[in-house]
Amino acid sequence: MAADAARFLADSPDRLALLERLADEPGTPSDLDDDLGQSRRSVQRNLAAFAERGWARKHDGAYDLTTAGRLITRRHRSYLDALAAIESWEPLFAHLPADQAPRPEHLADATLVGSEPDQPQAPVSHYVESIASASTDSIRMLSPVLSRLFHDAHAGQVLDGVTHELVLDGPTVQRAREQNPAEFATVVGVPGFSLYRHPDPLSFGLTLTDDRVFLLAYDDQGQLHALADGSDPAFYEWASTCFERHRDRSEHVSGLDAISS
Known about the structure:
Elements: H1 2-10, H2 13-24, H3 29-36, H4 40-53, E1 56-59, E2 62-65, H5 67-88, H6 90-93, E3 111-114, H7 122-133, E4 138-142, H8 148-159, E5 163-169, H9 170-179, H10 181-188, E6 193-198, E7 204-208, E8 213-218, E9 224-230, H11 233-248, E10 251-253, H12 255-260
Parallel strand pairs: 4-5, 5-6
Antiparallel strand pairs: 1-2, 3-9, 4-7, 6-10, 7-8, 8-9
Helix pairs in contact: 2-5, 3-4, 7-8, 9-10
């Protein structure tokens, strides 16, 4: 029955338009024809189908939605809006693992910054500028890569006393130690900076300030492909839970570890 209803609505966008018009107020076939610009025959055929399905009822020549009809209308609109949101965020979702993607509605008010042929560094530039100018007491991060640009943006915040928690996977921590052991030991020993080693590879990035989220999607070459920048409370809650889940599975890297490893 549900699959049949979904097929029925998907067969013609006129049906949802008619349902949404009836959700506003009852109407006669003539009213609906005039308001929607649909053919009288199509309107009458769809109204009859709605009535047969229990979605609408006729009274004194006018049609009105039943409770079931109103619920169907809202649910179908929500479904179509979710599909549209997924399509609009394809540059981000295309490079995120399925189990680490937020719900599309969490991104409704977020900004998408993608890498374009004429602006391949747009996501990086947006992130660096946003972090450097952020007003926050703390920053929490997951990162699958090492980036000097990111390091420089966060260094200023660290010097200003902003506490940092950074989660990297094991190989990335090892590369950071090997590339510059002295710098690595110094950074790990900075007050207010905490580094964690995650046991599994990380395939996406996440940064939280006090009230803002940056979700970062990387391509197969480790290049930042797209990011979502948002502050919706539901998005922030999802991101905070995600960060804490990864941090709690990680091992804290102390200053002594940095020197002796």
